[in-house]
Design brief:
Blueprint (H helix, E strand, L loop, with lengths): L1 H28 L4 H15 L4 E7 L3 E7 L11 H5 L6 E3 L2 E3 L3 E7 L2 E9 L9 H4 L1 H44 L10 E8 L7 E9 L2 E9 L3 H22 L3 H16 L5 E9 L4 E7 L5 E3 L6 E2 L3 E2 L14 E4 L5 E5 L1 H4 L11 H10 L5 H16 L8 E8 L1
Parallel strand pairs: 11-14
Antiparallel strand pairs: 1-2, 1-6, 3-4, 5-6, 7-17, 8-9, 9-10, 10-11, 11-15, 12-13, 12-16, 16-17
Helix pairs in contact: 1-2, 1-5, 2-5, 5-6, 6-7
């Protein structure tokens, strides 16, 4: 008779545990928010199984208590859970003071510790401890809860990754539409371009814009940031640049001041665009330019030392109002060249953390200055590839080389 009673009680306990496990599983399958799942977990263990104290720790960069009851005060993260819970310390830091506990158990999934549970009984506990009596079930229930929460987090990360990848694809498509793959060559200029996008979409942009009477605007720009926001800003910038050049090409200062105001309004001060723009007038045999925070292009005379064109002003959108804009010009003769580029070229590091550098670029261009623009760009890219070696590209790389005729 005693054995039958004992078996009946054991069956009733198993049924009680099974019902509790099914209740939590229904909540998980019903996509109940994590906060409610943790509340259900507490209701089951505290309300039905009389677990007086419990702290559940998960590794969130540090082993942090994600839910607890029965402890008076904030529970500090665990610096070394093996030592603090299972080793000689055997104490939690609660409200800044060390508190003892009755039991700590690691919860494993596929050989990995995914959580720790720290438990305590009533201060005047009599009879068998609930945490001892139900420890197997408590561990199982915690495992189900934590694995479900982890799976949700991993699924959310995967969805975010898919969304990010799609955003980068769209940004890349938009960026490709902005950057001309070919540019026309005429009686006054021979132009070569090269563009190598990075895995993460940046905001490199170059353009060759005819202005009439043989004049041409050569532009190279780079927007800060990546992804769709950067691509949208650059698209907006291109439209403004084309519109303003149609009636402000004779006044570069007015052009960049107006461009700056429009970029600042669009970006709200959160992003900026570096820009180099030059107007070539073959009738006057001159180039007028302004450098707005961009990598200085390299002017390469047919003979003699090359020089970088740095003077200008801050980048577009850095300041609400652009002041002290420095416009400069220089004479050009047949055979002279202008090499424009973005920071992905000169700032690329090799395995020794050495940059490709402006100095290396200048030496190469001076040595190979007789090459046609496309051939010169190819020589630069080959030297850049050899320099970076096994290092991945750090950024987009854009080149525009113009040889004046």
């Amino acid at each position: 008779m005693a054995d039958a009673d004992r078996l009946k009680k054991q069956i009733e306990r198993y049924q009680f545990q099974l019902d509790a496990l099914l209740d939590l599983t229904r909540s998980i399958n019903g996509n109940t928010p994590n906060a409610e799942l943790l509340a259900d977990y507490e209701a089951i263990l505290c309300g039905r199984f009389d677990v007086e104290k419990l702290a559940l720790f998960r590794n969130k960069g540090a082993w942090t208590s994600v839910h607890a009851w029965g402890y008076d005060g904030e529970i500090a993260p665990l610096q070394d859970p093996e030592d603090q819970l299972l080793g000689h310390q055997h104490a939690l830091l609660v409200g800044g003071e060390a508190q003892d506990f009755d039991m700590a158990v690691p919860v494993e999934n596929e050989g990995e510790v995914v959580a720790y549970i720290v438990l305590g009984d009533h201060e005047n506990q009599r009879g068998m401890s609930p945490i001892v009596k139900h420890m197997g079930f408590i561990t199982t229930l915690t495992n189900v809860l934590v694995v479900a929460m982890r799976n949700r987090e991993l699924a959310a990360e995967r969805l975010n990754q898919v969304a990010l990848e799609r955003e980068l694809e769209l940004a890349g498509e938009m960026q490709a539409m902005l950057v001309p793959s070919e540019v026309s060559t005429d009686a006054h200029r021979e132009i070569g371009v090269h563009y190598q996008p990075h895995h993460h979409v940046g905001g490199d942009y170059y353009d060759v814009i005819a202005l009439g009477n043989g004049r041409v605007a050569l532009a190279m720009a780079d927007v800060s940031g990546k992804g769709m926001p950067a691509a949208f800003l650059m698209s907006n910038f291109q439209a403004h640049l084309h519109a303003l050049l149609s009636h402000s090409a004779d006044d570069l200062e007015a052009l960049v001041v107006e461009l700056n105001e429009r970029v600042f309004r669009s970006a709200r001060g959160e992003r900026f665009i570096t820009l180099f723009i030059a107007i070539h007038d073959p009738a006057a045999g001159s180039v007028q330019y302004v450098n707005c925070g961009h990598n200085p292009p390299l002017f390469v005379p047919k003979k003699g030392e090359a020089c970088f064109l740095a003077p200008g002003c801050p980048g577009m959108g850095m300041l609400e109002v652009l002041e002290n804009v420095h416009i400069d010009d220089f004479e050009v003769k047949a055979g002279d060249a202008l090499c424009m580029f973005t920071d992905g070229l000169v700032e690329q590091e090799n395995t020794d953390r050495q940059e490709f550098s402006e100095e290396r670029l200048q030496q190469l261009v001076e040595k190979r200055r007789d090459l046609a623009p496309d051939a010169l760009n190819q020589a630069i890219v080959e030297a850049w590839e050899a320099h970076k070696g096994e290092e991945p590209p750090a950024d987009d790389t854009a080149l525009l080389t113009c040889r004046f005729r």
